[in-house]
Each structure stands twice: as structure tokens, then as C-alpha cells.
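Can't paste images in this forum, so I'm doing it all in text. The chain is below; anyone willing to post the predicted C-alpha cells underneath?
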Amino acid sequence: MKRREKIITDYFTSWVRKDSAVIENIFSLEAVYIESWRPAYRNLAEIKKWFSEWNENNTVLQWDIIGFLHQGDICVCEWYFKCECDNNISGFNGVSIVEFDINEKIISLKEFQSKHPNYYPYEK
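Text version of the structure:
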């Protein structure tokens, strides 16, 4: 389990550092990646292209892991993400469902987001 947590942590850190080197080592050639706002990438080549293009004009400022849950080949990771896109800084809470193949490479990653900060409509 700790190995998978390190893989995910290294991946998040690669975004903050704009370092694509880790991607080829952690994703399967057939990996599928679905972002929290609909775009999907169907293989390692598309994931690498997206990483490169996104980082040309945008910056991940923070991608902090809150915790992990493990079940078989699947690891669920809760996190907080903050970035600068088009000169706007925004952040949100999220969860990734990460499935690993037999070689301990990511074969599927699905992101889900929750707007940040939360508000409490019934708070007085």
C-alpha cells in the first residue's frame, strides 16, 4: 500500500514541479485518465501531451494529499488542489480513484471535485 501512496504522491508533486519525467514510469501504456470536469485521455501518449500543454500556460500551486483508502487494486486519494490558470487562482477539494495493474502502474485514474470553500446554508 505504501508503494501506491508514493506513486500517487510523486505524481501530484510532478505537477507542482512541472516535471513530466515521472509520468512514463507510473502510467500503463493503456492508462485511461478522466479529469473532474470531463476531459478524458485514453493512453500514456495523450496523458503526456496533456501534461505538457497544460503546463505551458498554467501552474499548479498546491496539490496536498489528505488521505488514502485501499481496496484490492484500487486506491482512493482525497486531496486539495490549487492552481493559477489564465491569471486566476482557484482551488478545490477532490478525490481520485486510482486503479493499478499487475505491474503496479496506473491503468485508470478518475478525478472528482468539490467546490472550495464549503458553505453551511443552515449556519446561523
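DSSP finds three helices and six strands in the chain. The beta strands are 27-34, 40-41, 58-71, 74-85, 88-100, 106-115.
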